[in-house]
């Protein structure tokens, strides 16, 4: 469960935009909240928070499972986010098959040129998160509660 | 004391590399296709000699591979490239260790000739678990791809093709009833398409698989031609196809176990002339075996 750190906030921001930008920066430095990552903060008249619902470690794990299956690796092969497909013996046909499996698993559509450029598990996970984020959010209740919590924090500081 | 003796031994061991038998450069329109079967290279002392040929970067690349078999194959691939390219140099005592490699701006591996410009030699390599191949040409970029004939894909062949191949290729595959024959044609197409993209040398974004069709030339047994579809327009019926003879293809079988596709850019001077492929099996420093010489129209 995320919590705001005790860093003191002192600022002289006259406008809401810069206030909330500073809060965004403080929150990022605060204790890790892995299940929500704020998307690019767009400076606009209205506050907008983008929510990503895919937790990075989870995504990496799912990608690893698919890679293991495609490359017929033993279940106890140690894979990390940095594991390179080529170092595991994947050729371009394997990479494309892995991408197809990821598309099915995450219900996304990967551009062909992106498909060929994925070389590590992390890159695949990042691409998936990027594509999932762009989809209309299908967030869980827990995630929504967290969003509302942060919105209250921000509005109370203004 | 012991350390210096060891390094002395290492030095004399490395000087002791047998010399490579030099080769004549291929003529224009010829591709020399060399291949190694990893299972046939068992001697640990030979593999040690091979590892001495590699640059530090290449050694690091081999070390990165997970598992002994993958490491061995990575070592053999670099050895095949270094020794093969070295053998074509006119200087008979050319040391394969002195070759430098670089990648072009799109990531295609090339020889770094280090200020000796206008070198005519081009190469490209491809490998599977059980075969490593290197193609060599002069004056024309070359791309090769090898694939195990028995390679099974995890997805349905047509579903895969619909996702990645061109519409004409999907139609072609759809007409093949027997699933095994369909899978084989799918694999052949994969090797041909990969060989083209590798010959082009501009990365996959320059030639997405669904923007070009490779099809057999009617009336020939193994001739293939390339047709590029134009920019995708709103109306698919408006797509025009440009089929030209700029790129030549050859599809062969190696060691009864693999399909190998070779693609070269047609030299202006030789427009329309047939392509020839000379296939040799090799174990670097040990033996060469001429396998075949074939003409592809």
Cα radius of gyration of chain B in angstroms: 21 Å
Total strands of chain A: the figure is: 0
DSSP helical segment count of chain A: 6
In CATH terms, the superfamily of chain B is: 4'-phosphopantetheinyl transferase domain
The DSSP helix count of chain B reads 7
Q: Tell me how many strands of chain B there are.
A: 13
Helix/strand order of chain A: HHHHHH
CATH topology (fold) name of chain B: Ribosomal Protein L22, Chain A
What topology, given as strand order, has the largest sheet of chain B?
4-5-1-12-13
Q: Radius of gyration of chain A, rounded?
A: 19 Å
Which structural class is indicated by helix and strand composition of chain A? mainly alpha
* Biggest beta sheet summary of chain A: none
Low-confidence stretches of chain B: 1-15
* Annotated CATH architecture of one domain in chain A: Orthogonal Bundle
Termini gap of chain B: 65 Å
Q: Biggest interface and its residues per chain? A: A-B, 18 and 23 residues
Structure report:
The complex is a heterodimer of chains A (158) and B (297). Chain A contains 6 helices and no strands. The relative contact order of chain A is 0.15. Chain B has 297 residues and is of the alpha+beta class. Chain B has one domain: 4'-phosphopantetheinyl transferase domain (Ribosomal Protein L22, Chain A), CATH 3.90.470.20. In chain B, 31% of the residues lie in helices and 29% in strands. In chain B, the strands form 4 sheets. Chain B has a 5-stranded mixed beta sheet with strand order 4-5-1-12-13, covered by helices on one side. In chain B, strands 6-11-10 form a 3-stranded antiparallel beta sheet. In chain B, a hairpin with a 3-residue loop joins β10 and β11. In chain B, α2 crosses α4. At the A-B interface, α3 and α4 of A face α5 of B.
């Amino acid at each position: 469960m995320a919590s705001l750190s005790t860093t003191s906030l002192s600022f002289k921001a006259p406008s809401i935009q810069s206030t909330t930008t500073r809060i965004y920066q403080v929150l990022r430095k605060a204790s890790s909240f892995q299940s929500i990552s704020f998307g690019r903060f767009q400076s606009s008249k209205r506050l907008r928070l983008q929510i990503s619902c895919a937790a990075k470690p989870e995504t990496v794990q799912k990608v690893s499972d698919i890679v293991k299956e495609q490359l017929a690796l033993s279940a106890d092969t140690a894979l990390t986010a940095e594991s390179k497909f080529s170092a595991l013996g994947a050729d371009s046909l394997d990479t494309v098959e892995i991408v197809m499996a990821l598309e099915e698993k995450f219900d996304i559509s990967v551009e062909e040129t992106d498909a060929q450029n994925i070389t590590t598990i992390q890159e695949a996970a990042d691409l998936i998160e990027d594509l999932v984020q762009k989809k209309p959010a299908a967030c869980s209740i827990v995630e929504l509660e967290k969003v509302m919590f942060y919105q209250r924090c921000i509005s109370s500081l203004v | 004391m012991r350390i210096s003796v060891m390094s002395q031994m290492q030095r004399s061991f490395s000087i002791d590399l047998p010399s490579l038998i030099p080769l004549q450069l291929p003529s224009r329109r010829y591709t020399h296709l060399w291949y190694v079967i990893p299972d046939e290279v068992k001697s640990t002392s030979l593999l040690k000699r091979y590892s001495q040929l590699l640059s530090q970067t290449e050694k690091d690349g081999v070390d990165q591979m997970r598992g002994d078999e993958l490491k061995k194959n990575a070592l053999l691939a670099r050895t095949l490239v270094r020794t093969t390219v070295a053998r074509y140099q006119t200087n008979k005592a050319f040391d394969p260790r002195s070759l430098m490699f670089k990648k072009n701006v799109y990531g295609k591996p090339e020889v770094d000739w280090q200020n000796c410009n206008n070198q005519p030699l081009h190469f490209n390599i491809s490998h599977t678990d059980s075969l490593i191949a290197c193609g060599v040409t002069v004056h024309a970029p070359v791309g090769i791809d090898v694939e195990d004939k028995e390679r099974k894909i995890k997805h349905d062949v047509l579903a895969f093709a619909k996702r990645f191949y061109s519409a004409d290729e999907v139609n072609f595959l759809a007409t093949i009833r027997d699933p095994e024959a369909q899978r084989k044609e799918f694999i052949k197409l994969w090797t041909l398409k990969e060989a083209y993209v590798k010959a082009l040398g501009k990365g996959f974004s320059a030639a997405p698989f669904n923007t070009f069709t490779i099809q057999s030339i009617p009336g020939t047994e193994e001739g293939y031609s390339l047709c590029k579809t134009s920019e995708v327009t709103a109306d698919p019926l408006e797509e025009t196809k440009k089929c030209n003879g700029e790129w030549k293809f050859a599809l062969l079988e190696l060691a009864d176990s693999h399909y190998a596709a070779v693609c070269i850019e047609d030299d202006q001077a030789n427009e329309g002339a047939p392509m020839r492929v000379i296939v040799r099996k090799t174990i670097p420093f040990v033996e060469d075996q001429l396998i075949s010489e074939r003409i592809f129209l």
